[in-house]
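Batch manifest, entry 17 of 40.
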Amino acid sequence: MANTTTTSRTAVAAASSPSGSEIGEPAARVLRKFRLVFNAVKTHFQQVEKKAGVGGAQVWALSIIRGSAGIGVNDLARAMDVHQSTASNLVKSLVERGLVVAAKDGPDRRAVQLRVTAAGAKVLQRAPGPLTGVLPEALASLDARTLARLDKDLAALITALNPDTRGANIPLGQL
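Output type: structure tokens
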């Protein structure tokens, strides 16, 4: 009878998985951990949107601009570790909402300098921290050895996924 119970549990698990086979307990444990990470990030972005009225990536950009008044789009992109076009789109949205002003009043009249407006400062006051997002904050809190191990292990996972690598430069708040 025990053998029949084990067989029926396996059949139920196999029938309920998308591919028709179990992924195995080690993979299931890791999958649950990824779910916890993704849900923590998602919950934080929802709280930011609800309290600040703008997305997490916009709050992060605002915080960088506030901390570096006169920063340009390229430097903002570097600070956020995103593609220049992504930063440009963020800035465009912030300017359209009146949260940032972009002016060409520096020594190089071709380069745009960014500044947070009073409305942008109010958004930052309402935004729950961390302004960079919970995942970058958590990663920054880890020691170098742990980060190196995560980097190596995630590289192996990424190889198995074979994703479009352009996604590496898109803020999580925009996914």
